[in-house]
Amino acid sequence: MSEWIPVNEADGTEIPAGSRADFTFTPDASGMQLDAVAASKYRGLSYEVVVDDDQRYGPAAIPPTDIDDMTTTHNPRLEVSRDLVIIVRNPSSSSRFVAAQVRGVEQ
Questions:
Q1: What is the spatial distance between Cα 102 and Cα 94, in angstroms, rounded to a whole number?
Q2: What's the gap between Cα 20 and its chain centre?
Q3: How far apart, in whole angstroms, are the C-alpha atoms of residue 61 and residue 88?
Q4: The domain spanning residue 54 has which CATH number?
Q5: 68: phi > 0 → left, psi -120 to 50 → alpha, else beta; which?
């Protein structure tokens, strides 16, 4: 039986005005179980979470939690077999630097 190891991955990018960013998190081995899914919170942005091609959150005006808080968003943990994508849309007239982060365990 494989052992579960902690995972805490983050990514960030500048999202130009009128654009979107896709942050993709992929298990290194057979799967991930996540207790926190987070992104930078800005007024006017739109947030979505897609797990293994299944829409699990949003579109919403706020992320599941802010990266400055990293509050647990899933209990029990959210299971990810192939990938988790955090989609952030920036419809505003100015660019924004947005970070996205996931925390949990992977096998």
A1: 26
A2: 14
A3: 10
A4: 2.60.120
A5: alpha
The secondary structure of residue 66, as a DSSP letter, is B
Q: How far is CA 56 from the centre of its chain?
A: 11
pTM of the full predicted structure? 0.93
* Cβ contact 37:64 at 8 Å: yes
Number of structural domains in the chain: 1
Region at 16 (left for phi over 0; alpha for psi -120 to 50; beta for the rest): beta
pLDDT digits (tens, 9 = 90+) for 40-79: 999 999 999 999 999 999 999 999 999 998 889 999 999 9
Q: Which two tokens stand for residue 66?
A: 């802010």
Q: Which two tokens stand for residue 50?
A: 């897609």
Reduced to 3 states, what is the DSSP secondary structure of residue 64?
Answer: coil
CA 61, chain centre distance (Å)? 14
Q: Which domain range does residue 21 map to? A: 5-106
Residue keyed to tokens 């799967």 = 31
